[in-house]
Write a structure and sequence with these properties.
The protein has 1319 residues and is of the alpha+beta class. The chain is 48% helix and 10% strand. Strand 18 (505-509) and strand 19 form a beta hairpin. It comes from Anser brachyrhynchus.
């Protein structure tokens, strides 16, 4: 502005001299510069509003009387001086034309009365002021002759001088006024190429005075004079009062709302800043404190070990104490063992009937899968029916229908062609990206022509469905044509017309003459998308073919800042109507979307060399899930086949090559797999009969879980049978019963823990988690029952076959029977016995495990989030350069259920002040952290605030709000009025669906639309939902304070994504609650079935908790988001962890070895090998195969997460748990000293015997050989021997705890008492 003023000052003297001063020789108060009308301007070819130019008239102003004075009071009240003293420089015809012009501006400015008044005053002074000649200087005229032969001088250009203060004040009062129908600023339509972002006072006035804008009848050169400066030659700049936007025009009116005027907003306290991070110096404070705590407890632990090793005093050996808990545990174990022994003997004696019964029951329950319903709707999967988002969605859909459907095409330049600089003679130089070229735009028009003509035949209806049958047509919803369909693209700036795109014209600006083409029109439209006519010689409209604006942030992507011409991507968006699934038209739109995908896919192939084209329809997500699921079925099949092959090969114990076919267990393994699958199918069928739906994720997760549990039990049972020697006089059936009695309590412990765990997990509010937990619980229960019946029978038959030397699979053939054979080829158990266990339980290694394992436990910041689409999807590649999701800015609606009684009339209408109307006053858009664009309110547009917006006589002839009766009569007209240039307030398209009324016209619900900022990640979507709900609560609280409002009245925000992202508001708390519920029964069942063994049960709980913590921590390191799918896998992780932990703990608890270390070693060797073979080695091959799946869901949550769970469970079960039990596990005799305890005897070495000899000794020589060995080592009868790497010199059931800080969390007082007594 200052630069323009400087140029004006330098050139004014010469300019005024060359401007023919004789055109306005008199610059004096009371004199005019022009008067009356002199016809149309011959220099204006296209005008949106027909208007005439004034006649040259540098004479005194004339007296206003009669109709002119009456109209002047209405249009320009500031110019009225009195009934006999009011002089003007305009006629009644001019004033009438001015009234129409001001009314057009009022449609976009009337929301702010002071802005509207200031804008009207500008033209009132220009046209009618009696002192017109003081600030006006006519610079150019044309001569014309009327039809009557009268010569006239028509003014076609003049200068208008304003003071800088007055012009700035008028501009400032209008720059914040919103245009709700478009979501932008009103100034966007009044500043030409600059838009609201770059608009200034000078640019605003220059556009008003540009004869090429389609509204101005002549050229006006606005000159802004610095305050206190006079241009000279008698010219005095206009310096009238301009109302501030926060000022009321009169006592009975209100100032502009907060939404349109920042000065009207009450002071909003700044939100509290987040607390600074806790730091100690430059380090993280929490990390430092944790390190100090760990160091302290590690020091206590190591000091206790050292002090314990220095004790030399020998303690007396006391008799074992057997408390009630020990006796109860022993009795319960014997009771269970007796039941399982008798049951195993019975089943092994009658295998075929048991198999038949088990198969019939499993098949009968599996038949229920015929009624199975698969839930594919994400809303039904992840959002509880009673959740807030579901209830809000149901209310919204009932009153306003489902959200629109979207089809998009995103085009980028594949060859990264260089951009070019275009030097516009009108608009200056602009850089254009390579994709914004005439060739690419022509290609886009070709694609749009194909899509517009796309149709699909509907066999059921016997008709063809085209775009116009399903498209969203906001301005003609009842009977749309193809031209009425809402299509947003950059070619809509040319109304999708090739002729207009190719137009070229010559234009002169000042002394420069050049050509203008599509570049100039595009530059203008991206900055002023609401213009009906550009300022170039092309004189084209920027409005789309369907009649609405095309905003550049919708049609373009990947641009820096607001430089739209440098966009890297062109976006075509088709908006389609959405229908309920029960509506036949739902199939129409799905079919047309399928046709859309086919057309664009063909187009993609034809232009793949030059353009990168990605696309999506509303159905694409479901299509992609189905596609990748189908493509990944072979991956899952291979995964299961690998697992089956491993089980089939690993179950056998081979002693010689000639007996491979006899000792093979392929048939038994397949039978065990059939038992597992039968349990899965039976559980699904059983729950389907109860009416519980299932989902694809359940079909994918539950078999893996049950297979891990079932395979573990199979390996434990079969390997125990293989390693057990039949006693003298014992039958095969009795042998199987005895083995079952040994392993079944452990299997019952794990299965019962998992069943109760998942049953409690079913208390989750998430439907998918609840369904998964129920299915897993029932499946594991059925698996245990089928294994106790069907698999025991299968083992009995297989044992009979092997003893008969019959071949596996082909049992009709066989070989000669042989005598008893030795143990078969074993690798894992000897490795654990001779290398791994002695090393792990070495007196130096155990403290290292404690001090190095515990610090690594704990979750890090695992992000909330969802997975993306497959990387080979047709709608991924072009989204990368956009820097945002394809949908971009997303609308959010503020919905009040109904409208409460309000005001003296008790009716909810604008006349009495609907409580939603003050939203602008309360500053919703200004306060909303999620608002990218302002809210679109139908109430301020429907309720007239003045009398100049009347059309066809349907108006109020008073400046007031309507009465209730008037409001009810006017509202339907407003909602169905087509917005035009003459009636921009028409509600059709913008507001016709914003009000839900019943048959009587009562408002049942309404909605106001705002916009969220572009959101990219799940965290941003969740934060937007949280902010929207907080804002809705604030609005609700404010409106409830309005007298007459129902106390239960509330406002809620709604958009299509909220129902999906609501889970992230509660998924952390929900997950903690679910996982804690799963851990509780694990501890309680262990405590009860292990004979009230508190220490072993706590060890189980600690280890499983550490597995979960480490899993969550590794999830963060491996970019695995935490969501409902991850929670399902974590719940499954509890079940798998039980398999890794509980079997070994049970073996430790029931071991008869005299010391903690020996019992931990025995449990690790006997049960650790089975756990590795049955759980880890069963899962790992199948999991690794899943790495080749295409779906990110499978890659992340099935490959990565299951791999983490399996490896973490294996590491904790075989490394951490044995060391933990060696320190805190309960010794025989309820903690009392037993004859087998090793004591420190001064001057005597103490050792351990080999835990598991390679060769079995007869009862007769055991004692003698042991005595010889003890004699050689100098050990007494009660002292075991040391073998291998050695053991601690002092071994006792009273060693210091593994991790005091962890144990203090679980059993602080009891454990401290126990620890102090042990010292």
């Amino acid at each position: 502005q200052n630069g323009a003023w400087g140029k004006g000052v330098q050139g004014w003297g010469a300019f005024l001299g060359s401007a023919a001063p004789e055109l306005t020789p008199i610059h004096r108060a009371g004199y005019c510069a022009f008067y009356d009308e002199c016809g149309r301007n011959p220099e204006v070819n296209v005008s949106l509003v027909s208007s005439n130019v004034p006649c040259l008239y540098n004479q005194p102003a004339r007296l206003a009387t009669g109709a002119l004075l009456q109209l002047l009071r209405s249009v320009c009240p500031e110019l009225v001086r009195g009934d006999n003293d009011t002089r003007v420089c305009c006629t009644l015809r001019q004033l009438t034309a001015l009234q129409v012009s001001v009314a057009l501006s009022g449609t976009v400015l009337a929301r702010c009365p002071s802005c509207s008044r200031n804008f009207a005053n500008l033209y009132c002074n220009n046209i009618c002021s009696p002192d017109q000649s003081l600030f006006t200087n006519v610079t150019r005229i044309v001569n014309r002759t009327t039809v009557l032969g009268v010569q006239q001088e028509a003014v076609v250009e003049y200068q208008c001088f304003y003071s800088q203060r007055y012009a700035d004040a008028a501009f400032d009062s209008c720059k914040g006024v919103r245009l709700p129908a478009t979501g932008g600023y009103a100034i966007d339509t009044m500043c030409g190429i600059y838009g609201a972002r770059l608009c200034t006072t000078q640019r605003w006035l220059d556009f008003q005075g540009d004869k090429n804008n389609g509204l101005a009848p002549l050229q006006i050169d606005f000159q802004l004079v610095p305050n206190g400066t006079q241009p000279g030659d008698g010219i005095e700049p206009l310096d009238e009062r301009a109302w501030g936007c926060n000022e009321a025009l009169s006592s009975d009116q209100q100032p502009c709302s907060c939404q349109d005027c920042a000065e009207s907003c009450p002071p909003v306290p700044a939100p509290p800043s987040p607390a600074p991070p806790f730091r100690l110096g430059a380090a993280d404070g929490a990390l430092v404190i944790c390190a100090m705590l760990f160091g302290f407890f590690a020091l206590v632990f190591l000091t206790a070990l050292m002090c314990r090793g220095k004790k030399k005093k020998k303690k007396a050996v006391l008799a074992p104490r057997r408390g009630c808990a020990v006796r109860l545990g022993t009795c319960s174990h014997r009771f269970l063992a007796g039941i399982f022994r008798r049951w195993g003997t019975l089943v092994a004696g009658h295998p075929l009937p048991v198999l038949v019964v088990a198969a019939v029951v499993a098949a009968g329950l599996s038949a229920g899968m015929a009624t199975l319903r698969l839930t594919t709707d994400p809303v039904e999967l992840w959002s509880a029916p009673g959740s807030q988002a579901r209830q809000e969605k149901a209310f919204y859909d009932e009153h306003f229908g489902p959200f629109l459907r979207t089809c998009q095409v995103i085009v980028t330049a594949r060859d990264q062609r260089p951009g070019a600089t275009y030097d516009s003679v009108v608009l200056g130089a602009k850089n254009f990206s390579g994709v914004l070229s005439a060739e690419v735009l022509q290609v886009l028009l070709e694609l749009q022509d194909q899509l517009t003509g796309a149709s699909v035949w509907m066999q059921e209806e016997g008709r063809e469905v085209t775009l116009q049958d399903v498209c969203y047509a906001p301005l003609n919803p009842s009977g749309p044509s193809l031209a009425d369909c809402c299509i947003n693209s950059v070619t809509q700036y040319f109304q999708n017309n090739r002729t207009r795109l190719a137009m070229v014209a010559t234009q002169t600006v000042g002394k420069e003459t050049g050509t203008v083409d599509w570049h100039d029109h595009l530059i203008y439209c991206v900055n002023s998308p609401l213009s009906f006519k550009d300022i170039t010689s092309l004189e084209l409209s920027c409005m789309a073919e369907y009649g609405g604006p095309v905003f550049p942030y919708i049609a373009l992507g990947g641009y820096p800042d607001s430089e739209y011409t440098q966009a890297e991507a062109l976006i075509i968006t088709y908006s389609l109507n959405n229908f309920p699934r029960s509506d036949p038209r739902h199939k129409w739109v799905l079919s047309w979307e399928q046709r859309f995908l086919e057309v664009v896919r063909d187009f993609q192939r034809n232009h793949s060399q030059n353009l990168s084209i990605s696309f999506m329809a509303e159905r694409s997500l479901e299509d992609e899930i189905n596609r990748t699921t189908g493509e990944d079925i072979p991956v899952f099949a291979v995964s299961y086949l690998v697992v089956f092959a491993y089980i089939a090969l690993a179950l056998g114990e081979y002693t010689a090559w000639r007996r491979v076919l006899v000792e093979s267990k392929v048939t038994l393994a397949l039978g065990g797999i059939a038992v597992v699958l039968g349990a899965v199918f039976a559980s699904m069928g059983f729950l389907a009969l109860l009416g519980l739906p299932s989902s694809l994720i359940i079909l994918e997760v539950v078999p893996f879980l049950v297979l891990a549990v079932g395979a573990d039990n199979i390996f434990i049972f079969v390997q125990e049978y293989q390693q057990s020697q039949r006693e003298v006089g014992e039958t095969r059936e009795q042998h199987i019963g005895r083995v079952l009695a040994q392993v079944a309590p452990s299997m019952l412990l794990c299965s019962l823990s998992e069943v109760i765990c998942f049953l409690l997990g079913a208390l989750s509010s998430m439907p998918a988690v609840r369904t998964f937990a129920l299915t897993a619980s029932v499946a594991i229960a059925f698996d245990f029952l089928l294994q106790m019946s069907g698999f025991v029978a299968l083992l009995a038959l297989d044992a009979r076959r092997q003893e008969a030397a019959r071949f596996d699979i082909c049992c009709c053939c066989g070989t000669e029977k042989e005598g008893p054979t030795g143990p078969g080829l074993r690798v894992l158990r000897p490795f654990l016995s001779h290398f791994y266990t002695p090393l792990l339980l070495h007196r130096l290694i155990r403290p290292l495990v404690v001090t190095h394992w515990v610090p690594t436990t704990g979750p890090t910041g695992c992000p909330l989030g969802a997975t993306g689409c497959p990387l080979d999807s047709h709608w991924v590649p072009a989204a990368v350069p956009l820097g945002r999701p394809p949908r971009g800015v997303l609308g959010v609606y503020w919905v009040p259920p109904g409208c409460p009684p309000q005001g003296p009339s008790g009716a909810c209408h604008g006349a009495t002040g609907c409580p939603l109307f003050p939203w602008g006053v309360h500053g919703v858009p200004a306060a909303a952290p999620l608002g990218a664009y302002p809210a679109s309110h139908w109430v301020p547009m429907a309720v007239p605030t003045d009398d100049i917006s009347c059309a066809l006589g349907q108006c109020l002839n008073a400046t007031r709000r309507p009465t209730v009766e008037e409001f009810e009569r006017f509202l339907p007209w407003f909602l169905h009025d087509l917005p035009t240039l003459q009636c921009a307030k028409g509600g059709l398209g913008a507001y016709d669906t914003a009000v839900s009324m019943d048959a009587n016209g009562t408002i049942m619900a309404s909605r106001f639309m705002a916009y969220q900022r572009p959101l990219r990640t799940s965290q941003e979507y969740t934060a937007a939902l949280r902010a929207a709900r907080a804002l809705a609560e604030n609005i609700t609280g404010t409106l409830r304070q309005v007298p007459g409002t129902d106390p239960d009245f509330r406002v809620f925000p709604y958009t299509v994504t909220y129902v999906y992202y609501e889970q992230y508001l509660t998924v952390v708390g929900e997950g903690l609650f679910t996982l804690v519920l799963c851990l509780v029964p694990t501890f309680l069942v262990s405590f009860v079935l292990l004979g009230m063994d508190l220490r072993s049960s706590v060890a189980t709980l600690i280890t499983i908790t550490m597995i979960l913590l480490d899993t969550v921590g590794i999830m963060a390191l491996w970019d695995i988001p935490y969501n409902a799918v991850a929670l399902i896998n974590l719940v499954a992780a509890v079940g798998i962890s039980v398999e890794f932990v509980s079997h070994l703990t049970c073996a430790f608890a029931h071991s008869t070895k005299p010391t903690h270390v020996e019992r931990a070693a025995e449990a690790t060797i006997t049960m650790g090998s089975k756990v590795v073979a049955g759980v880890a080695m069963t899962n790992l091959p199948g999991i690794v195969v899943l790495a080749f799946a295409k779906a990110q869901l499978i890659q992340i949550f099935f490959f990565r997460l299951n791999l983490i769970i399996t490896l973490a469970g294996l590491a904790h079960g075989l490394v951490f748990l044995p060391v933990l039990l060696s320190y805190m596990g309960k010794a025989p005799g309820d903690g009392a000293v037993t004859p087998g305890d090793t004591r420190v005897v001064e001057g005597t070495a103490t050792a351990l015997t080999p835990l598991f000899p390679r060769r079995t000794q007869s009862p007769g020589d055991t004692r003698g050989q042991q005595g010889q060995r003890r004699a050689r080592h100098g050990a007494g009868p009660g002292q075991p021997l040391l073998r291998g790497l050695g053991a601690p010199a002092a071994l006792s059931p009273h060693h210091p705890p593994l991790c005091p800080i962890l144990l203090l969390l679980f059993i602080p007082r009891s454990y401290l008492n126990w620890f102090s007594q042990s010292q």
